[in-house]
Batch of 3 targets.
Target 1
Amino acid sequence: MDANRFTVINCWLIQREILNKPIIHWVLIIDILFCGLYLEIHQMGHYFRFPFPSSRFEMILFFSFIIGLIRTFLQILLIFRLDWSQFWSYVRYIDLINIPEEISREKKLQRKRSNRVLIQFTLTLAFHLLGASSYMILKKFNIGMFLLFTFLIFGHCCLLVILNDSTACLSFTFQTINSSIERFNFIDDERIQLDRLKTYQKNYFYAVQSTLSAECFFKDLVTFHYSRNSLDIIMLFFSIAFRVEDSVHLIIHVIWSFIILINILAITFLTTNLNSVHVNSEGALEDLYELSFETDSVPMIDQIKSFLNRITKANVGFTFADLVLISPNFITSLLTLSFTILLGLINFVNH
């Protein structure tokens, strides 16, 4: 099997050998540490002349800088907490999966990976450029700061790109195993059928172990991403809820409204990708159950039951804060919570 087909990083993004070197980790740390801290402290310096912001708008801006400073420290902590041995465990297991090579299938995977990278980069770029533009309108940014702010995109975007790319590979792997089981037939010799079913079960085991390793590597990033975007949405909602004082504030409100929309799209995009891994990991249940009716062979039935038992007990997928599995039930709960918070915020602002 080609070693590059199911790895997270392919040659068109970052060479696998480069990612395995410590330099890439330190680039992430330096990028977030120096650029992030410098930008936040530079913005906070605008308020060091005042005991407290003089208006509601400046108060919201002041607290947003405080939250941004805390967020930068959490990002630095996140980079140090990443267990890269789990990342390479994920790659090692997914390389062990023996799937027949099909050019159309490989092109489909590469197209999906490219699209996810492009969407994630576009969302991150739009978020940071709109944020930097609002600060430039408030005359708290110059061109040099804007370029530094733009460079910070790399630190924010790199790990999210790897995460979404990983979900594409894992989801594709489970889909391929499911389609192989769906096309299973009993025409061949029983021994060949049994060996083929064992191969599918072994591939599923490797896919599960790969997902568990990826979840261990990305769990802090997933939790941070959900928390950061949710907090940004709440803060920006409070900001645009206040009365517009002049045309400048009106422009800022419009920009921040777009930032809220981008945050919602980012959460939706990540949730959809993470959920696809869990959904596809259980996609073979019905096909395996149907296979048990089509054979009278005791070894085949035992193997099918073993496979079914493995799938039902695996509970594969990514989690939020290592507590809640991101699944259709999680999406339903997230939507319910979001509408509840939105109604509460609207009621609070009106009063």
Target 2
Amino acid sequence: MSNSSATIANVAQHVQYISTLDVALPFIQRSGDRVTASVTEIIKAVLNAYTYRKALGEENANSVTWLQGYIVCVILGSGGASTVSLLRGEALSILYKDDFWIINGLAYCSIFSNRYIFQVLQLLFQRFTVLHHICQFIVDVSRGYAIVRLGVDGGSKLTKSAIMLRESVVGQIVCGTLIGCASGLWVELLGLLQPTWTFSMPKSFLALSYTVKISMMTTLLYLLLLKPFYSEDLSVAHTISALTFAALLLYFKLKSDSNTQKPIGRIDIPSEKAKELAKLKKRK
């Protein structure tokens, strides 16, 4: 193995270690053993609950029922994997994960039952925007791994449908793309970020969002990497694809934020008044 390949493999090993790092949940046991949870999943659950409350606004946060809000957090946390499981005719993986329900329940209860917790998070993310970007990047790396491992490879426990999909490039592209963006599609389809849900055409069907595009690009990149890296170490292709997915999402998010933010002291002037001012300047 060349030095560059060894370096990539070493990076892949460290990234995978961080993405799979687990911690024991306090006071929660199952069959005498502590229930563990992924650090990435904990960050993801907190970010989803925070984003949901921020989208609702303070005036609507208290009008949402507990069951309604909890369902939204579950969809935000598992929409991609659950959609692909339904397409393949498989049981939803979240049904076997007690830690998923516990983490999302605790995150939702903490942020929606106490507005001070939400305000502290909001203050932290506003004062230290890099912290918010780091947390989101960690979550997006995990999503990138899910695209290639679950969407394209079919998961660790291969079912008959997952094995059959390995022979279909179109099926792999569809499943990989949906893993990365299906949560957003469900949000747009059902209007989940509103206090009252309404069925409507997803905006991404009319104009593809950058999340959909990046999810598809990541899937295609992984399929291209399969042949040269499969004989050496598949984890290298996994890591390259996952990091590419997270990096592209971060880039477009920063670009979108910079386009929406106004420079300090700038005042937008209507075009007609701007033209009149320009004429006055020319006369002077």
Target 3
Amino acid sequence: MGDEAQSSDEHTKIEINGIKIGGQIAHAHNLLTVAMETGGVLAAGAFFKALAEDLGTRLAGTIDSGTRAAVRRFLRRQEEEASGSAIAGFDLRTEQGWRISMSRDLSAEALAQLGDLCEAEPPAPGMSPLLINYGRAGWEAWGGVDGDYVRYRWEPESKRWATRPLS
């Protein structure tokens, strides 16, 4: 047994800072070194975990607010398109005070006539400002002359307003 103990002691001999030590001291040193390395790894792990959580939270907050805003805009557009509350049309005013209602589905033919229509003479002297829109029959206008309600139709060939009977 003595030889076995001695060979075990020889086996555990190490050198620390130029000093040879062995036996129980060498074993304690090895355990202490392992414990310190383990403690360092655990402490670094906790530190890196906290750092990653903080960066992850910041990144998630940044992405989250930007993503939320983009999703809100997208949903608002979808809702407007579905409900038809998107801009369905708008009105133009001419120099004569006429109001022209424009819609999103105005044909190219109607747009081509718009310049002539705006520059045309009023259909009757002393007329109130016209309300104009584009219908199935083309450009139509409504206005008042001497207290009477009058309806007109645009004639693109002659570039003038023609009286249209009220129906």
